[in-house]
């Protein structure tokens, strides 16, 4: 079983979706599952070192007050708590994630992709780390087991640039418009941080049909909570 996940480290719903998938996988003890994290930049043109936190960025982007910006993230904070995550948007640093994605390719090669994704999500959404900063990227990558010199070599050059671009192009080809986006065995898609039971349904189908080749099917019952370059939204919230 192979599960591919397109995500970005500054995407709150990507971390929530990761946890819900993990909850779903607990229903299938003993099953072999290969989870691969693939690159997707929510904002390829994002700046580094803006000096603003996430609430300040949202307030400026949408012409809202800081209090209104905090209200915009409250639902995500509550959803995070339900899966054991602690989001601290006042300390989240908006940044460019391209170099972090390049190093994530190295982590995938070394079998550390899942650990890398976990550490970088937490670094951004809980610890307030700037994962666009090379020193920060290096320190976090070493934490998960990557060789410091190898990481520095990637960051100082252009290694894995094509790999990141290739995965982003692939996402565009299969119709990914927001992340997280999950593809199970190249047969089933789950778009957004869907409820755990949706992941369970997809896994049940995939395990039952691994020897077959059904048509690609989107299992999302409706629009799931996801992030795009325009921001993160919960379906229905815009009508409140």
TrEMBL record:
InterPro entries: DSBA-like_thioredoxin_dom (IPR001853), Thioredoxin-like_sf (IPR036249). Residues 230-240 have a biased composition (Acidic residues). Residues 3-202 form the DSBA-like thioredoxin domain. Gene3D superfamilies: Glutaredoxin. Residues 215-240 are annotated as: Disordered. One of its GO terms (molecular function) is oxidoreductase activity. PANTHER family: GLUTATHIONE S-TRANSFERASE KAPPA (PTHR13887), THIOREDOXIN SUPERFAMILY PROTEIN (PTHR13887:SF41). This is DSBA oxidoreductase.
């Amino acid at each position: 079983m192979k599960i591919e996940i397109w995500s970005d480290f500054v995407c709150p719903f990507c971390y929530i979706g990761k946890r819900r998938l993990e909850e779903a996988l607990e229903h299938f003890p003993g099953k072999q599952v290969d989870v691969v994290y693939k690159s997707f930049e929510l904002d390829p043109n994002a700046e580094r070192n803006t000096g603003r936190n996430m609430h300040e960025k949202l307030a400026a982007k949408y012409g809202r007050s800081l209090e209104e910006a905090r209200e915009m993230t409250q639902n995500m904070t509550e959803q995070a708590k339900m899966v054991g995550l602690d989001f601290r948007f006042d300390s989240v640093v908006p940044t460019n994630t391209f170099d972090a994605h390049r190093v994530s390719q190295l982590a995938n090669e070394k079998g550390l992709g899942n650990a890398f994704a976990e550490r970088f999500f937490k670094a951004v959404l809980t610890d307030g780390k700037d994962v666009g900063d090379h020193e920060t990227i290096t320190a976090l990558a070493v934490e998960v087991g990557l060789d410091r010199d190898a990481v520095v070599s990637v960051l100082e050059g252009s290694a894995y640039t094509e790999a990141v671009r290739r995965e982003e192009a692939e996402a565009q080809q299969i119709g990914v418009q927001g992340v997280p986006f999950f593809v199970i065995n190249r047969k089933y898609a789950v778009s957004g941080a869907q409820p755990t039971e949706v992941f369970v349904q997809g896994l049940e189908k995939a395990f039952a049909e691994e020897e077959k080749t059904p048509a690609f099917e989107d299992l999302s019952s409706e629009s799931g909570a996801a992030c795009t370059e325009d921001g993160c939204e919960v379906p229905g919230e815009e009508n409140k």
